[in-house]
């Protein structure tokens, strides 16, 4: 193992000092190793790139797949209503007028009401416990849809489903920030988030198979909820006993690896690793105006994201295929969305730039919606179908990269949890807008809905470029004041955010 925890008497030589943090100095040697020293010059630890690569591979194979499967089921349980609608859900339950839209809308209201509370509980008691419990809950509510008989029953279940899912994604983001450096996070979170696109694609395939079931006493669409609910519940038990609370308690790591994981986070993720939650201190994140601009971008992201996730089967239905083929034709756009997400995320980590790739995603959304609205779909089927691909490209990538972007700029763990627990649910709350702009009376073209979605995409693009330009300019201003260019400031110096003179934006 290339990780070396040196004695306190080891001398330091041939190292270039980057910055100091509380009681420690972070240096970089000629070989590229990170050196953790005391301020008196005595070395605590040496963190080599080879040791880090070995450690992150363990996280990639031990933690990431489990989280991805959990989010896969989360996405299935959230988006299966669109597939069920194409198989006669409205007719079976006797839904009238805008009742289907109301059922979609009510799901998103609990997101804002309960997500911050559940996220704080996750920080306090550990995401490794709270996430599986949430998974068990939304699996149960999905399973109960199998027995629902009317509008009131389905609406009630959707409300509680929204409550149980509200803090899932915010907690997963926070959980991953305790294992990965800032420059490693985008591609890992993208691999995790790709599970949603794959889930949307698999949902179409599963619906394609399930809707061929014509035996038994249940309506075709009920089998969809039965299968997905049972699988979700079963996997939640495995996750509860498998996920570690943190790297320092992971059973699959040796003690030197646990120490390495701790110092990695102290250098490039958290100001204080495993910091206890302080409510008042954590909510201080809202004292800086950039937090509100980030929330505004989340709103602009939420409408396209939820529109595509909830209504892609209805958008594709305009191409004129039957119910079974319509669900099948949603697979390719969702798979391509996952691929584009991975491309942009890996490019973002490689370049260490965030906002240009967020802006590119918004541009894809805008163009996809405008093309679909502006052409004659029946006579330009291939172009119209390609536009649905652009829609998925432009919703997956910004969702991940935006969350990574602002998490990279918050070294305080409590503030990171709080802003994420407001931002992500706010984007999901925009499902209320999406649910009500896609009206049956506008079918099959849905022109008002697509135009509204495009407008939100354009606004998100403008706000993203504005915030990115500010961060670039502010870093240059801080460098001029310091008289030198500063890069890679250890996160121990960044606890107070932009108020600290040493602070530099990760843009």
Layout of helices and strands, plus pairs?
Layout (H helix, E strand, L loop, with lengths): L14 E7 L2 E6 L4 E5 L4 E5 L1 H14 L1 H23 L2 H5 L5 H8 L2 H17 L1 H18 L6 H15 L2 H10 L4 H29 L9 H23 L12 H14 L10 H4 L6 H29 L5 H6 L2 H21 L3 H20 L6 H28 L4 H17 L1 H7 L9 H36 L25
Antiparallel strand pairs: 1-2, 2-3, 3-4
Helix pairs in contact: 2-6, 2-9, 2-10, 2-13, 4-7, 4-19, 5-6, 5-7, 5-8, 5-18, 6-7, 6-8, 6-10, 8-18, 9-15, 9-17, 13-17, 13-18, 13-19, 13-20, 15-17, 16-17, 16-20
As laid out across the biggest beta sheet, the strand order is 1-2-3-4
Q: Enumerate the spans where pLDDT stays under 50 for 5 or more consecutive residues.
A: 1-32, 37-41
Number of helices: 20
Q: How much helical structure, as a percent, in the residues?
A: 55-70%
Structural class: mainly alpha
End-to-end Cα distance, whole Å, is: 33 Å
Overall outline: globular
Number of strand elements? 4
Biggest sheet, open or closed, and with what strands and sense?
4 strands, antiparallel
Proportion of beta-strand residues: under 5%
Radius of gyration: 24 Å
Mean pLDDT across every amino acid position: 83
Question: In sequence order, what are the helices and strands, one letter per element?
Answer: EEEEHHHHHHHHHHHHHHHHHHHH
């Amino acid at each position: 193992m290339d990780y070396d925890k040196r004695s306190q008497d080891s001398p330091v030589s041939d190292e270039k000092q980057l910055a100091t943090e509380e009681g420690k100095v972070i240096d970089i040697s000629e070989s590229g190793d990170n050196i953790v020293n005391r301020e008196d010059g005595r070395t605590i630890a040496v963190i080599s790139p080879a040791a880090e690569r070995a450690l992150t591979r363990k996280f990639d194979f031990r933690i990431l797949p489990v989280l991805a499967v959990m989010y896969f089921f989360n996405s299935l349980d959230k988006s299966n209503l669109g597939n069920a609608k194409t198989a006669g859900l409205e007719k079976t339950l006797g839904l009238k007028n805008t009742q289907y839209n109301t059922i979609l809308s009510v799901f998103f209201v609990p997101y804002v009401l309960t997500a911050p509370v559940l996220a704080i509980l996750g920080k306090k008691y550990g995401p490794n416990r709270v996430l599986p419990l949430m998974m068990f809950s939304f699996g149960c509510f999905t399973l109960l849809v199998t027995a629902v008989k009317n509008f009131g029953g389905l609406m009630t279940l959707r409300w509680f489903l929204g409550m149980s899912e509200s803090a899932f994604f915010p907690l997963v983001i926070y959980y991953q920030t305790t294992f990965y450096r800032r420059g490693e996070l985008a591609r890992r979170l993208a691999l995790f988030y790709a599970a949603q696109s794959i889930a949307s694609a698999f949902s179409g395939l599963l619906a394609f198979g399930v809707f061929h079931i014509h035996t038994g006493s249940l309506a075709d669409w009920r089998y969809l909820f039965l299968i997905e609910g049972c699988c979700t519940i079963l996997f939640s038990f495995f996750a509860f006993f498998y996920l570690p609370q943190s790297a320092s308690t992971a059973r699959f790591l040796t003690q030197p690896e646990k120490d390495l994981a701790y110092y990695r986070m102290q250098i490039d993720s958290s100001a204080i690793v495993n910091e206890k939650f302080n409510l008042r201190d954590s909510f201080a994140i809202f004292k800086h105006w950039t937090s509100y601009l980030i929330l505004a971008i989340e709103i602009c992201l939420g409408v396209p994201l939820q529109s595509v996730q909830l209504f892609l089967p209805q958008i594709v239905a305009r191409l004129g295929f039957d119910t079974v083929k319509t669900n099948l034709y949603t697979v390719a756009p969702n798979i391509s969305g996952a691929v584009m997400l991975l491309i942009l995320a890996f490019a973002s980590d490689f370049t260490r730039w965030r906002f240009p790739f967020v802006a590119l995603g918004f541009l894809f959304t805008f163009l996809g919606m405008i093309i679909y609205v502006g052409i004659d779909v029946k006579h330009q089927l291939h172009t119209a179908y390609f536009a649905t691909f652009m829609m998925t490209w432009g919703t997956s990538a910004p969702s991940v990269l935006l969350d990574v972007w602002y998490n990279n700029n918050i070294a305080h763990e409590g503030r990171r949890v709080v802003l994420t627990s407001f931002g992500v649910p706010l984007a999901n709350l925009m499902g209320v807008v999406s649910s009500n702009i896609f009206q049956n009376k506008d079918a099959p073209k849905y022109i008002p809905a697509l135009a509204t979605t495009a407008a939100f995409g354009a606004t998100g693009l403008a706000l993203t470029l504005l915030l990115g330009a500010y961060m670039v300019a502010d870093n240059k201003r801080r460098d001029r004041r310091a008289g030198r260019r500063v890069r890679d400031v250890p996160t121990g110096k960044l606890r107070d955010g932009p108020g600290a003179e040493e602070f530099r934006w990760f843009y």
